[in-house]
């Protein structure tokens, strides 16, 4: 049975899409064709193979023959994609798919960066995951991400860190908070305040703990609320003082829903970094992304960080 002489790439893509999504409807959406077209491709493929490949109507299941063909189809499609990438690379054109992971705070600006990157380099695609810092470390360690966008890189892993933009963090509160319009607030004033914190292990939590320790502040009341959005909502509701990245609250500050407190030695300035493994060869696509972030990152995300850095 010489499948290679009769099977088409369209048929293989239809089979893989059905296997990945578990649905003919979702497979059709992924491939941007109609559901009947997906069904027709699979029927033709089954006729060529002489085996049922997909079993079940409501719950899609692959037969043994289907599993075998899906595995080999993915290898073939990947090889063809890689060949195209290598051909373009030979012409000096960056192409391919980059697996990117970013910490949760970066979700406020990474889409803007990738949107502009995509416009300039249409042959490069990306898969973006937004997770907490611990999961970023795990994805780098397991090689599930080629590039990480984060603050503090892992210390137990051989990585390369390339700073590309400043990262400012400040204390914020509701406009009617007693400290909202005071100037040059000493850190000791935070002792009696109710502080709103991210979960342990997050970069933002690490930054505020280091700030408080450096200034000898032992907060008497602190609540752990989790996400940046929850902290913002709690601060706006008058629940207490939150410590947040400027990227997360620039719109709320501009709208007058939050006020950045003039606490001494703030904003705390850190760096946004591109992080890659030392032992992982960099594709032309990854190198192109790194160069783009280094040259354009500050300008593209500076508006959101800088707007709240200047007091009116």
From TrEMBL:
Location of the HTH lysR-type domain: 7-63
InterPro entries documented for this protein: LysR_HTH_N, LysR_subst-bd, WH-like_DNA-bd_sf, WH_DNA-bd_sf
Protein name: LysR family transcriptional regulator
Keywords: DNA-binding, Transcription, Transcription regulation
GO function terms (MF aspect): DNA-binding transcription factor activity; transcription cis-regulatory region binding
Gene3D superfamilies reported for this sequence: Periplasmic binding protein-like II, Winged helix-like DNA-binding domain superfamily/Winged helix DNA-binding domain
Transmembrane segments: none
Organism encoding this protein: Denitromonas iodatirespirans
Family: Belongs to the LysR transcriptional regulatory family.
């Amino acid at each position: 049975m010489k499948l290679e002489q009769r099977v088409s790439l369209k048929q293989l893509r239809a089979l893989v899409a059905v296997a990945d999504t578990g649905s003919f409807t979702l497979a059709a959406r992924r491939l941007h064709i109609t559901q009947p077209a997906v069904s027709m491709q699979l029927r033709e493929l089954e006729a060529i193979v002489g085996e049922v490949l997909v079993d079940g109507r409501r719950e899609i299941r692959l037969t043994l023959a289907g599993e075998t063909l899906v595995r080999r189809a993915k290898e073939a499609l990947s090889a063809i994609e890689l060949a195209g990438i290598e051909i373009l690379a030979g012409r000096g054109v960056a192409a391919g798919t980059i697996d990117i992971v970013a910490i949760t705070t970066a979700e406020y600006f990474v889409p803007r960066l990738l949107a502009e990157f995509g416009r300039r380099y249409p042959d490069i695609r990306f898969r973006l995951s937004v997770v907490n810092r611990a999961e970023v470390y795990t994805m780098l360690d397991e090689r599930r991400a080629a590039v990480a966008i984060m603050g503090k890189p892992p210390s137990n892993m051989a990585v390369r860190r390339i700073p590309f933009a400043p990262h400012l963090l400040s204390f914020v509160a509701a406009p009617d908070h007693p400290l909202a319009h005071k100037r040059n607030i000493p850190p000791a004033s935070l002792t009696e305040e109710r502080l709103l914190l991210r979960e342990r292990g997050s970069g933002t939590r690490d930054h505020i703990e280091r700030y408080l320790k450096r200034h000898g502040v032992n907060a008497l009341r602190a609540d752990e609320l989790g996400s940046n959005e929850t902290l913002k909502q709690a601060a706006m509701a008058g629940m207490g003082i939150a410590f947040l990245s400027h990227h997360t609250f620039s719109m709320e500050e501009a709208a007058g829903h939050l006020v950045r407190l003039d606490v001494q030695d703030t904003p705390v300035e850190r760096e946004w970094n591109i992080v890659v493994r030392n032992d992982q060869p960099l594709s032309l696509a990854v190198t192109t992304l790194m160069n783009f972030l280094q040259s354009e990152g500050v300008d593209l995300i500076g508006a959101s960080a800088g707007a709240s850095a200047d007091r009116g």
